[in-house]
Amino acid sequence: MQPTPIGIDALAFAGPAHFLEMTDLAAARGVDPGKYLHGLGQKQMAIATPCEDTVTMAAEAGRRALEAFDIDPAQIGTLIVGTETGVDHSKPVAVYVHELLGLARNCRTFETKHACYGAMAGLTSSADWIAAGRARGRKALVIASDIARYGLNTPGEPTQGAGAVAMVVADRPRLLEIDRARCGDYTRQVMDFWRPLYSKYAFADGHYSIQCYLDALEGAWHDAADGDPEALASDRLAACLYHVPFVKMARKAHQKLLEIEHGDAAATDQTEARARLDASFAGKVAPWLELNATVGNIYTGSLFLALIDLLRHGRADLEGRELSLFSYGSGCGATFCLGRVAEGASRHAAALDPQPQLDVRRRLDIAAYERIMDLSEDVDTVPELDPASYGLDGGGLYYVGTREHVRRYARA
Ligand code: COA
């Protein structure tokens, strides 16, 4: 008898109300725009104002996932927020979200941290929680929420962004079944990206982090293959989804995947390897990178933003087809796994498409962007913040300052 499928039953994105054009950043930094647009593959990046934080974006994404997929909050028995930009060294973002969404008292609630990997850890452990019979018919809500901020005039500046992706994990999921037998893991202690307790900004050895990512892909892929590479053969997959700190990284990852499958280009015919990469990338990776290109890096959520992009196309021909998911968190930890698009998933394309939200975002000029970056330095100790002063007047939930060491949230 086949085991009951478990996977992603609902998906939603929430992000900041403002964005920066990469061409504006390139002009301000005296960089050829081609580097950002083509070298990194980014068009725009979402910028969080001081009133938008990891909690507000997580709560908004969670609310949208529950409402759009008609899920009663009382059905949620586990809430996990994966983040590397939490708001407290002790108190989890998840417990704020638990209250804001009105979840049940008997819901277990916690935060996971492993750089960009935290949400994949939440997804796979939620699936295991259901498979183990602990859920008793309930579902898990897993939210990835982050603000990727490297600072002004740093190499990482063009790879910033902000946003949250919420996913409900359940049995008989409406969107994506996770193949738990084809999940492979990789861990290695490396210093490619880290943020010490005393620093607002991450330290990144950018080029080394790319190499660590590719090494982790190879390690996790071999673990998932478990001696049977044919089981993962990308030729028969409908799509290959990757962690996307910047869009070009997905191409580097796919090139690595094909090298693992077919051998290093240096050892094979390079023209043939290039043609194979171009065709495979165009069919299985590139079509689902538009949201990543316009939102930017959202750390824990970026793999799942690519999944939203795939599902929003409403492609009935993808139903029943397998795809791969690769999550990488610096430091480092990674998982490579297979999933299967659920029958009927295409009917939910409009419910999970964030395009209407993105279409009403407001463009920042460089001066406003730099002012926001400066103000964000001290935001955790400011007693009073006014969302309206940042043009946030749409009735959303905002961070409005910290008094007596307590963060306060309110609807505008
Ligand atoms: N037109 C087109 N492409 C251009 C270009 C131009 N005018 N100028 C440069 N490029 C290309 C480069 O050839 C390079 O492409 P390649 O990687 O395919 O060789 C790409 O743009 C980036 O240029 P590079 O000189 O490597 O950029 P950088 O030294 O400023 O660093 C990162 C890029 C990603 C390392 C940096 O932004 C960073 O540290 N980001 C944060 C860490 C991160 O995202 N890590 C990812 C793994 S988790």
Characterise this structure.
The chain has a single domain, classed as Peroxisomal Thiolase, Chain A, domain 1, CATH 3.40.47. Helices cover 34% and strands 25% of the residues. It has helices at 22-29, 33-39, 54-68, 93-100, 118-131, 206-225, 247-262, 270-284, 290-295, 302-312, 349-352, 355-359, 366-375, and strands spanning 6-14, 18-21, 44-47, 76-82, 108-112, 139-148, 161-171, 176-187, 193-194, 203-204, 239-242, 322-329, 333-341, 362-363, 397-403, 406-411. The strands form 4 sheets. It has a 9-stranded mixed β-sheet with strand order 5-4-6-7-1-8-13-12-11, with helices on both faces. The longest helix has 20 residues, at 206-225. The protein is globular. The model has no long low-confidence stretch (mean pLDDT 96). Residues 32, 34-35, 38-40, 155-156, 158-159, 204, 206-207, 209-210, 213, 245-246, 248-249, 330 line the site of coenzyme A (COA).
Short description:
By secondary structure, the chain is α/β, with parallel strands linked by helices. The protein has 13 helices and 16 strands. Strand 12 (322-329) and strand 13 (333-341) form a beta hairpin.
